[in-house]
Structures are given as C-alpha cells and as structure tokens.
Amino acid sequence: MGAESITLPARFLATVAHLVVTLTILYDTDNITRRALEETSGYGDEKDSLQAQATTSTVCFVLEFVGMFSGVSLFFPTLNSFYIFLHINGTLYVGLFIGLHWGLKWYTWFFLLFSLLPALIEMLVCFAVFKLKMREYS
C-alpha cells in the first residue's frame, strides 16, 4: 500500500467537494449577489461576473477530471498532494464566502488560486507528458 492508496481517493474527494461548492454558487448566483451587495447599483454586472467566474471554474474542473481519469497526472504524488491542499482550501474558503456573505471580489481571488491555478498546472503536466515525453504514457 503506497502513498497512492491515500492520495488518489483524497484528491478525488477534495476535487468533488470543491466542485459541489462551486456549483452551489453557479445555481444560486442571484441570492449570493443580492446578499453580498448592500445597494442595488451594479447588481447586473456583478452577477454576470460571478456567474462567468463560476462557469469558468466548472470548465477548469472538467479539465482536471480529464487529466485525473486519463491517468496523465494521477501518479505524481507531490502534485496530488498539492491538488488536495488547493481543493480542500478552495472548498473551505468558497463555503465561507457563501455562508458569511463576503464581498464578491473575494471570489475572484478564490477562483484564481483554487480553480484556475490547478487547471493550468494540469495543462502543463499534460504538455510535459505528451510533448516533452517527461513520463511514458501508454
């Protein structure tokens, strides 16, 4: 029983938990925007921005799941630990963002750190495996 027996399920569960919290934002954008904004000015723009970030975050999750289920990034233990760290923190902070009605600008930072960064790393790993032949993929 190697490290993969712990990190692989943990990575999957952390990613799914982060996805669920992000989908909560996507499906409850109206209420989240209303609660975060005290005045009604700029409601439409802020709602559109939040919805665009949550949708892009969902696309980032699709990229990560493709990399995970294809096995490209599955057997990099350090990378798996980093993904687990990012997604657990992403779940925590996005959940707090929803529950405590933080300002909408906070989600931009959470999106960049906890959704876009792992997706970019996943794309770099795919590039390294397929183009640079860093690790044999069969």
TrEMBL record:
A Pfam family: TMEM107
TM stretches of this protein: 6-27, 82-103, 109-130
Broad class of the protein's primary localization: membrane
GO cellular component, one term: MKS complex
Keywords: Cilium biogenesis/degradation, Membrane, Transmembrane, Transmembrane helix
GO biological processes: non-motile cilium assembly; protein localization to ciliary transition zone
Signal peptide residue numbers: none
Membrane topology, record value: Multi-pass membrane protein
Domain of life: Eukaryota
Cellular location(s): Membrane
Name of the featured protein: Transmembrane protein 107
